[in-house]
Amino acid sequence: MDLNGKVISGYAKGCVFLSDKYYKENINQKCGFTPYPGTLNIALNNKYIDDIKKIKEEAEKKIGSDSEHGSVKFVKAILEDSVHGAILFPDKTTHKENEIEFISEKNLRTKFDLKDGDEVKITVYDF
């Protein structure tokens, strides 16, 4: 499934979570890469809200919670037909329904010279 959206600034919380040993090790084990400490935040067109809800509900892959960490569902995806990564769905989030967080091992803003408002395509292939 292809999703299109625009890059937006986040809340700088992804850096904190993806630098945490617990999440970093679990993502590496379950996704096969060590995440860059930050997420690419993308505001999807509102026409994708039902698709995102369905993907989140049907996502079977999960990083479980413990006494210090909340759980996170995820689906594997590809950004711009070239960078493998994942879309994260944390149990606790401040994002709107149409906003997603994409992670990979690369700094995606640098790799693609992305700025807020730039359009990107995400292909979800495993959920």
Task: Explain this structure.
The chain is α+β, with helices and mostly antiparallel strands and 127 residues long. The chain has a single domain (2-126), classed as Beta Barrel (Elongation Factor Tu (Ef-tu), domain 3), CATH 2.40.30.30. 25% of the residues lie in helices and 34% in strands. It contains four helices and seven strands, in the order βααβαββββαβ. The chain has helices at 13-19, 21-31, 49-58, 108-111; strands at 2-8, 40-44, 62-63, 72-79, 83-90, 99-103, 119-126. The chain is globular. It starts with a strand and ends with a strand. The mean pLDDT is 89.
Keywords:
single chain, 127 residues, alpha+beta, Elongation Factor Tu (Ef-tu), domain 3, six-stranded antiparallel beta barrel, 25% helix, globular
Q: Roughly how many Å is the radius of gyration? A: 13 Å
- According to DSSP, the number of beta strands is 7
* Coarse structural class: alpha+beta
Mean pLDDT score, rounded?
A: 89
Largest sheet: 6 strands, antiparallel, barrel
Structure, briefly:
By secondary structure, this protein is α+β, with helices and mostly antiparallel strands. It has one domain: Riboflavin kinase-like (Elongation Factor Tu (Ef-tu), domain 3, Beta Barrel).
